[in-house]
Design brief:
Length: 441
């Protein structure tokens, strides 16, 4: 038997075991799930030193591989990141159970009642790169929602990911009501490619990483994929933001959206300025850009104001830089800004900075993105900041989940019909009984 055949057989067993674990976890009550989550939080606190020691091995290898800047920061685990992870898990404990909710209830007839109930999705395959803190976030969300998960992390975080999986084993030992195979970690890229061929076992794929990663997975599987390939986020500054106070506020939000975490998918990539305030804004922004190392690529009108900036090409308007590069375009009005965003954007997160309530509502209603903000940084598009406890990713799809995906994105629904011996024949023909269709909820 070849090594590849052995690996495929092992993968099939892993996926079958995950499916069986899902059936077990799906019927756990809220009390048991919350108890497991609190235990998981305690285990992370108890093993923080070990987690950071294993992460140090990944960091040392990354430095040898000449990984630098934001990529190295994303890989690093420290006390602050672990504290945030633990806080996120404890926030999840406080949230209601997303499964078992009655979403709708209808009396079809006397003694014939239909309920729409939220239920866990199933086995979720999650593929992510570099960031080891993604793993405990995902594990906690999967646990709370009653699902099972098969994970594949980036090789850069190999030791860190393995350390978190060791905690899962300890969690299963302390909470024996959990299925031992509810969470698995794949080792090789080949295993990921093979997993994409098993829609009978895997119910959803969530890729988190580069445009190339997400696009390649979407093209390679029949399994539903939830995620986003691009994070081309915009801020439009309206004409009424020209006063000194409003200008200072706008500059603060723009700098935050670009500089606070440039490699994040919700970081600002294109700034749109109403022509009435473009000059006064850019003259001040140029100082902030220089101080923060922002490289500007501008349209012709931008270059007329800031002649030292680089010219923006057509490709720049649809580019996710992931660094401190920012494209800037001067537009004649709000409609032009909306048109630009809907044409070039990735439907991720876009914001308007304005005072006029009517302009704000037009923008929020017209921009076709998962997240639309008014007078706030695009960096707020995050499951933790939204109060979801954590997130498994951000979706730009128009399926059952959109935007930062927390617990609600990990459940679907089923219909339960309770009757008293009714037959369809009673409701058809000349003497058909009428349906009542009375909403009970």
């Amino acid at each position: 038997m070849s090594q590849l055949t052995q690996e495929i057989e092992q993968l099939e067993k892993t996926l079958k075991d995950a499916k069986a674990a899902f059936y077990q976890n799906a019927v756990l009550g809220a009390e048991k799930k919350n108890e497991a989550l609190e235990t998981f939080a305690l285990l992370i606190e108890e093993n923080a030193a070990h987690l950071m020691a294993e992460n140090q091995k990944d960091l040392e290898q990354a430095r040898q591989d000449q990984l630098q800047g934001q990529l190295l920061n994303r890989l690093k685990l420290d006390n602050a990141k672990l504290a945030q992870v633990v806080q996120g898990i404890r926030d999840l404990v406080k949230l209601p159970d997303p499964a078992g909710k009655i979403l709708a209830k209808t009396k079809l007839d006397d003694g014939l009642v239909l309920e729409k109930i939220s239920v866990p999705l199933g086995v979720i395959g999650i593929i992510f790169e570099s960031r080891p803190d993604v793993m405990p976030q995902v594990l906690s969300l999967v646990l709370k929602s009653g699902n099972a998960v098969v994970l594949k992390g980036g090789r850069e975080a190999r030791h860190s990911n393995a350390a978190f999986m060791d905690l899962v084993k300890k969690l299963n030992a302390r909470c024996p009501y959990l299925a031992n195979t509810w969470a698995s970690l794949l080792d090789s890229r080949e295993a990921v490619h093979q997993m994409l061929n098993y829609p009978e076992y895997v119910d959803l794929i969530i890729p988190r990483g580069s445009n190339q990663l997400v696009s390649s997975i979407m093209a390679a599987t029949k399994i539903p994929v939830m995620g986003h390939a691009d994070g081309i986020c915009h801020i439009y500054v309206h004409q009424d933001m020209g006063s000194p106070e409003a200008l200072a506020q706008a500059l603060k939000m723009v700098v935050d959206a670009k500089v606070q975490y440039p490699s994040a998918c919700n970081a600002l990539e294109t700034l749109l300025l109403h022509e009435a305030i473009a000059k006064v804004f850019l003259q001040d922004f140029a100082k902030d850009a220089k101080k923060n190392g922002i490289m500007i690529k501008g349209c012709e009108k931008t270059m007329a104001i800031l002649p030292d900036c680089q010219p923006a090409s057509e490709a720049d308007w649809s580019s996710e830089y992931g660094d401190l590069t920012l494209s800037i375009k001067v537009v004649p009005d709000l409609d032009a800004a909306v048109g630009h965003i809907n044409h070039y954007g990735s439907h991720h997160t876009d914001a308007i900075l304005a005072k006029d309530p009517e302009a704000i509502e037009r923008f929020l209603n017209s921009v076709d993105s998962a997240c639309v903000f008014a007078n706030a940084s695009t960096r707020f598009a995050d499951g933790f900041r939204f109060g979801f406890g954590a997130e498994v990713g951000i979706s730009t799809a128009k399926t059952h989940a959109r935007g930062p995906v927390g617990l609600e994105g990990l459940v679907i629904y089923k219909y339960k019909l309770r009757g008293q011996g009714q037959a369809v024949a009673d409701y058809v023909g000349e003497n058909a009984k009428p349906f009542r269709h009375e909403p009970l909820l």
